[in-house]
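Amino Acid Chain and Its Fold in Token Form
===========================================
Structure side: the spatial fold of the chain, written down as a series of whole-number tokens.
Position: the record begins directly beneath this header, with no further notes in between.
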Amino acid sequence: MAQSLQILDVTIRDGSFVINFQYTPEQVANIVGALDRSGIPYIEIAHGMGLGAAENVGAPAGATDLEYIRAARQKVRRAKLGAIAVPFHTTNEKNILQMLGLLDFVRIVAYADDVRPSLKMASLARRNGFDVFFQMIRSARVSPQRLLDQAKRVEGAGARVVYVVDTAGYYLPQDVARVVQLLKNKLSIQVGFHGHDNLNLGVANALAAVKAGVDFVDASLRGFGRGAGNTKLESLVVLLQRQGLLRHIKLDVLLDAAERYVDPLTPHDRGKGNADLLTAASNVDLFPLSFGEQLASALNVPFARLVRTLGKNVHSAQQSRSEWKQVIRLLGGQPHRLLPSQSRKIQRRQKKCEALLAIDIPIEGLCFPNSAREYLSQRFPQLRFRVDFMSEIHAQAVKGVEIMWAHHISPEVLQQATSLTWFHGYSGGIDHLPLRLFEKQGVMVTFPRGVMAPTVAETVIGSILLFYRKIYESVLSQLSNSWKTKEILELHPPLRELRGSTVGIIGLGSIGLEVARRCKQLGSRVIGLEVIKGFTSSWVDEVFPPRALSSLLAKSDAIVLACPLTQETHHLIGRHEFRRMRPHAILINVARGSLVNEAALMEALEQGRIAGALFDAFTVEPLPDNHPLFQTPCFVVMPHISGFAQHTWQRLFECFIKNLSCYFEGRPLPDAVDLKRGY
């Protein structure tokens, strides 16, 4: 057991994943100050994805790396400060050299089965006076001997510490002990251990590493970290102090810091989910997790099956393009439709990539900001783009355009866009696009999957309460200058609560699941309809297949439409379905108007067959001024605005940048559409 054991805290670096990299410099300063006072000797800060991630791969943070590090430096008296560097497209030489005089160590990320691409950056850091640590990610994907072979390369490069990294939380304590002992026996440099808590073994694995003689152990306050989280620092300190180690660490200071600074940042729904357990069981590190979930959806297979197939068929730590192709084929998909072609990547090196962003709206808060133009120009110098208004795109505008971000394109114009290879949609649905023609012309299509989920979900909750709490009737009372307490209380159905009500959600995509989460937290029973066989979610009590739609309707007090519009879902709700609904039921449509037969809807409301409805989407938009729906009783018309809020534009832009980064790097586009299925 190492008597000179060092703790490296990753609350800020790894913990930034939990809050979407939105630490403020003040929060960083507070946490670092407390860790320093407690006696923690090493602290890792800056962007969770690595130095330079904000500007180089489009992962915006709450502040710059320099702002974080300078804030931390002002609070440190004894601890060593460091940051992580990722040579694979994220961190460059400039990002390293900016840290001269500010950081004590740099931790270089390397794949556990091939460290060679990372050695150049390690040499740069060492020449400039930084202590060099090596982070051997996905260590559990390779044999101990292969890991040792690569660790010897790290040793030869002059690194001070090489880290065994249990990225997916797969290791058992005996696995950790065996690997650490092997490296300690064969290397002259120090060895560290970085664990994740997918199987609740974070602390146990850290203790096994310490017993095996490890020199460094990573941990974080409250286990704050990506995915299932890291080794919990407070628990580790308690257990090690009982063994006579780390007596100098002030536990009370750590506990106070966790309560004061980390607990307020912890999302209320944070915990270990099925994805954490599945990835650990299959020894698979999926990042971003959303890509795996979206790929499973595109392939029409359960997420669990994708993860298990990936675990069996990916044989390197890098998850190469060829291995992704193999997995997609095994699951019945076509890689060329889900992965961008490498030939395009080669062409882009030779000439500027032309892009048309037809997304400008002359409304304050929705127009394309100058800061976004500047960011695109600086981040993607290989991109030549122009921004135009969100209007009908003419044939001349698309000549030579390779990338397009727009709301709509007509079939006639699309046929003229002979250079187009990727179309990124603007809205949460793509049923208005010529999908078959996109498929015929070999154009990849993405859309901002999940971007509008938070705002739409809030609209749904507000809509249900509008009827449950008789706000709708109260507004009508006000408009007639009347005070109608008795009349409203006597109305049927009576006032209701969300708590104890059953909410039926048709379509459990990103919006449907966000609605489910919020309803569940308010005490509702949530049931849902989903086409993916075997679909499960902790937010949904019961999942129905499409053939059981009538059963879902009969059991629901509120029904939410959140599914895509396809040939199968056109007029999904008609006269027969309204007859299956409860008399006190309400219907909320935040998807597409054509999901509902509007004549049947008006008939059901006029006859009192259901209690009310609110639609934010209609078959014809804008709804004509003389449309009878405006006069339909117990019906609320929203002019298709549920997806917009003060942060919508920023999220739309971040989604585009995320896909654009993958496009230029030849990686799978995270928000790709299955053109055959239509979503």
The first helix runs from residue 25 to 38. The radius of gyration is 27 Å. DSSP finds 27 helices and 20 strands in the chain. Residues 365 and 646 are 7 Å apart (CA to CA).
